[in-house]
Design goal:
- This protein is of the alpha+beta class.
- Helix content is 39%, strand content 24%.
- It is rod-shaped and about 80 Å long.
């Protein structure tokens, strides 16, 4: 078994490298590098327990020493959209907003949007509301003026 360990570590390194290439999540890259580092003790015919120790220690060192730098270097910037301009704007309720019934629509900037209230209160037809945030295709709104309490 010991004579095949070099090939096992190389295979593991390649497999983990492929996983990283497919996911691009910076999760398995350190383990792939650690597997290739572990080829060295495998070539020296050390015991499998020493090789596993080298693998674990090298993966941990690589992860701790390089991950913060790599994450900063490839930081994914959130792209803002035109919809983000709606946050803070006033919208008119065109269908009563009732979170419990998963119902409600508002009209803003010439478009109708599905809407829910931040605090679960019911906003009646014709009420003015302020856009608090956007979650997917829903506007999460808060009262511009007092609205009715949520029905029990």
């Amino acid at each position: 078994m010991n004579e095949y360990m070099v090939f096992i570590w190389i295979g593991l390194g390649v497999l983990l490298g492929l996983v990283e290439a497919l996911t691009l999540q910076l999760v398995s890259i350190w383990f792939a590098a650690a597997a290739f580092i572990t080829v060295i003790p495998a070539l020296m015919h050390t015991s499998p327990s020493v090789q596993i120790l080298v693998f674990v220690v090298s993966a941990a060192v690589l992860l701790v020493c390089t991950r913060p730098f790599v994450k900063r270097a490839v930081h994914m910037k959130k792209e803002s959209t035109n919809a983000d301009m709606l946050v803070g704007q006033t919208a008119q309720v065109v269908e009563t907003i009732d979170n419990a019934k998963e119902a409600g629509r508002v009209h803003i900037s010439g478009l109708d949007w599905t809407a829910r209230t931040v605090d679960g209160r019911v906003a009646e037809l014709g009420d003015s509301v302020i856009v608090d945030r956007i979650e997917g295709v829903k506007l999460i709104v808060r009262a511009d003026a007092p609205v009715a309490e949520a029905k029990s």
